[in-house]
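>> received
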Amino acid sequence: MRRWILSGVLLLALVVTGIWGYNQFLQNQDHTIRANNLYQKSFYELVGRVDNIESGLSKMMVTGDKGQSIVMLSDVWRQADSASSDLGQLPLRHMALDKTSKFLGQLSDYCRYLTIKAGQGRPLSIKDGDNLKELHNSSIKLSNELKVLESDVNAGTVSWQKIMAYGNKSLEDVEKDIVTKQFTKIEETSIEYPTLIYDGPFSETLLRGKQLNLPGSNISYSEAERIARGFIGNKRINRAQKGAETMGDIETWGVTVETKDSEGPYHLSITKKGGKIISVVSEGVVEKPTMSYKESVGRAKEFLDKNGFKNMVSTYGQFNDGVAVINFAYEEGDTIIYPDLIKVKISLATGNLMGFEALNYLTAHRERHLESPKLSIEEARKLVNKNLEITSERLAVIPSKGGNEIQCYEFKGKFGGEDFIVYINSDTGTEEDILKILNTENGTMVI
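>> returned
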């Protein structure tokens, strides 16, 4: 009798296990279908937006109407913003995408700047026209390369899940991965753009000639997932799963985190050596904003402090479509260190994290031994053009165009109703750079 009871219990356990396993299979299958649909949607939207960008820029070449120029520039700016978001949602975390992403970001920022300029009644300069031609030529190249890839997607030869599986291979080992091969080819074409708008002073030169050199040992995927959960917040998480890995110059684990709210899922890239988070991208939807930009800066600062990024000060930022993007630089004593840059994206509805970029910080941050300046701040001030009405001054470390670091005095001031920053070398007195600050209804830009 006891044997029959034991056999029955075992049979029941087997049936329950089978049902559970089948349900898990159905859930995973449903997740795979939803993920494939998302990737497919993001890709087609990326192709369409790049087409719209090329068309909008071509129209800019021939319009003579200021009102039309504002409409076209505004559309290209928003299309480039959205295209950058679509690119970030594809299951590709290779560093090879950096150039394409940077091109779209620069294009968006520049057209935003020209929209504001035209809206203020100021005519576009000859240099602006030349820059737009350069950007238009690059958009043509990008559009043509994407159309080659689109034909493969239409032919059904692309599986986004397989692409995720190839994510742990190096860029040289992607013969079966059509999408990565094509994006690698795009990166190798001469996508050119002028150095125009910065995420904050000097961000375009921060990584030049630098390599990521992190302390610590290699971590497992399970450790990367633990780090990702802690970064997003365990209480917000439904589940986490393995995303695309990257090899090459920077080896990373990919972790995808699904949340209980509408602000996920999140895609995180975490270095295999040292377990440092390089980037976070959210696919979430932001509800109606309820907080000010100033409040979002406070939330971003709290987030950085909580996660071990101490002595960070906000520099410049933008807010659009319910999110604020704030740039932070490291502060050592009374000196601001611009190479140690982190970008934080905050929801203006909830104050939660929506995005994060720390590659500049992880590449540049180290213990520095700053020398005492050879020039006093009074001596440096005399070297600033007398036309600038100085409003603030401080020490700063900026990168040179070659990627080295220069200690300067930073003088902020006004001229002709506009804001400028002048950098004077604190040892030689050389004027190293001048930046112009644009204060807009959506935040601050620097050119």
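>> The radius of gyration is 25 Å.
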